[in-house]
Amino acid sequence: MKNNIGPFSLYNKTPNDINYGAIYTLEVELPLLYYKKRIIRVYVPEDYDENNKYPLLVMSDGQNIVDRYTSAYGAWEIDKRQHESSKRFIVVGIDCPIGPSERAMEYSFPFVMINKWEEGRYANSLKLKFESHLLYEYIALTLLPLIKENFSISDDRALIGCGGSSMGGVFSLSLMLSYPDLFGYALCFSPGYFLYNEKKVNKYLDERLKYLDLNHKIYFYTGNVGFEEKFLARTKTMYEYFKEHGFDDNHVALNIDYSGEHNEYCWSKHFNDAIDFWLS
């Protein structure tokens, strides 16, 4: 692998847990209100060839995509999952903010207020301002062109996706809804929809649905053990919303693992199923 691709530098600090492919990093300053300085991490496959055009998956919580040594909560081990698969794609993620409240507001539906507070975890959000629309604008108008300029990315909207888990699962659908002309796929693992008023979310969906077409794809996953139990019912109703609005089985999917917990181990286990649905 090259030491540099454009402004991105090969990540080779040790110890690391990168088994296949490589990570390239770049520190940037985001146009946000909190934790402006972030690391962008770009994962390229083990057989990356600049002469090929690759699908791109933009993920939340970039420090968690591969390396457990940089992860905030645990690693998806996407390098291992890709190695097990015949599918090859590039993954880019921006590190999440340090505070859970800031993360919640940064990954939220734009302008749809969180109205349920989990044991005080997001209590400070009442004092914060939404940042999600600023983050989504940065990804669409600055990050995506930067990645396409330096890495070999497909020009097909259907092959440009968003992904994440928990509040990151909210992020992935929100980003696609915000820029449906740029993103054709949303991978929504254990999305925290239960934190929102369902009627207000549906109103937002009704407003944005006219900008989607039946070539967009959405993959929902949820478990049902421990804290994950909170996510099951609302993930099912979100899936049913899209089914009721014309999305068939080729364009929206729901995967329920009734033994699944709320952690990266479970999300990693189901990751390739979501990729197969996307790139089938």
Order of helices and strands: EEEEEHEHHEHEHEHEHH
Q: Please mark out the parts with pLDDT under 50 across 5 or more consecutive residues, or reply none.
A: none
Shape: globular
Looking at CATH, the homologous superfamily is: Alpha/Beta hydrolase fold, catalytic domain
Q: What separation lies between the terminal Cα atoms?
A: 28 Å
| Structural domain tally | 1
The whole-angstrom Rg is 17 Å
| Arithmetic mean pLDDT | 93
**CATH-defined architecture:** 3-Layer(aba) Sandwich
Q: Which strand order spans the largest sheet, edge to edge or round the barrel? A: 1-2-3-4-6-5-7-8-9-10
Number of helices: 8
Q: Which strand-content bin applies to the residues?
A: 15-25%
Alpha-beta content class:
alpha/beta
Within the CATH hierarchy, at the fold level, what is the topology?
A: Rossmann fold
Largest sheet: 10 strands, mixed
User: How many E-type strands?
Assistant: 10
Helix content: 25-40%
CATH class: Alpha Beta
Q: What report would you give on this structure?
A:
- The chain is an alpha/beta fold and 280 residues long.
- The protein has a single domain (4-212), classed as Rossmann fold (3-Layer(aba) Sandwich), CATH 3.40.50.
- Helices cover 31% and strands 19% of the residues.
- It has 8 helices and 10 strands.
- The chain has helices spanning 78-84, 100-106, 132-150, 167-178, 198-209, 229-244, 264-269, 271-279, and strands spanning 4-5, 8-10, 22-29, 37-44, 56-59, 90-94, 160-165, 185-189, 217-223, 252-257.
- It has a 10-stranded mixed sheet with strand order 1-2-3-4-6-5-7-8-9-10, sandwiched between helices.
- The mean pLDDT is 93.
